[in-house]
Design brief:
8 helices, globular, alpha/beta, Rossmann fold
Length: 179
């Protein structure tokens, strides 16, 4: 009947792996793909996908499956391991996509030099990571990181009245986010 006391579904569990640089992120993605070729990398923006495609084409002759989220179908993900290669600036849009694709666990790789992070002072985090002796290919992974990213996305979302499409994260932020 009524489920007044049941906890509201919060969508899939999102795990973030945040790297110091995009180059480090791509190298880890390549290394993981070499170990498990059923991985598919999903991008939100054309420019990010093209950049990754260029990186991977110089690193391997084998074809790595890279998809744009807006062109991805449920069938393409069936039996594959989906890894997102960046965040979309709006958390609701991400959640809608995850639910549409029936994803329960979501892994997102991102880098602190991406425009989304630069907007929120990522340079300081990079300095701290380097002072702690972290290597380029080491990622920060913690529920607090994922929670902070979600809060930043929600902050952006509050300032977006009508979303304009864009080909890159930088372009999207420039067109849509006025803090």
């Amino acid at each position: 009947m009524f489920n007044f006391f049941r906890k509201k579904s919060e969508g899939p569990q999102v795990t973030d792996a945040v790297f110091i640089s995009t180059a480090a992120k791509y190298q880890v993605m390549l290394d993981e793909w070499k170990k498990n070729k059923s991985i598919i990398y999903i991008f939100w923006f054309d420019d990010s996908l093209n950049e990754a495609s260029s990186y991977f084409s110089t690193a391997t002759t084998e074809e790595i499956v890279l998809l744009l989220a807006r062109e991805t179908t449920f069938h393409q993900l069936s039996g594959k391991i989906s890894v997102f290669a960046e965040h979309y600036p709006l958390e609701t849009k991400e959640q809608d996509f995850y639910q549409k694709m029936n994803l329960k666990l979501v892994k997102v790789y991102s880098a602190l030099n991406e425009p989304l992070y630069k907007h929120f002072g990522a340079e300081k985090i990079v300095d701290i990571m380097r002072k702690l002796g972290m290597k380029e290919d080491e990622a920060i992974e913690h529920s607090m990181i994922s929670s902070s990213i979600k809060k930043a996305q929600k902050k952006i979302e509050k300032n977006v009245l009508i979303e304009k499409t864009a080909h890159s994260q930088s372009d999207w932020l420039q067109k849509n986010y006025k803090p």
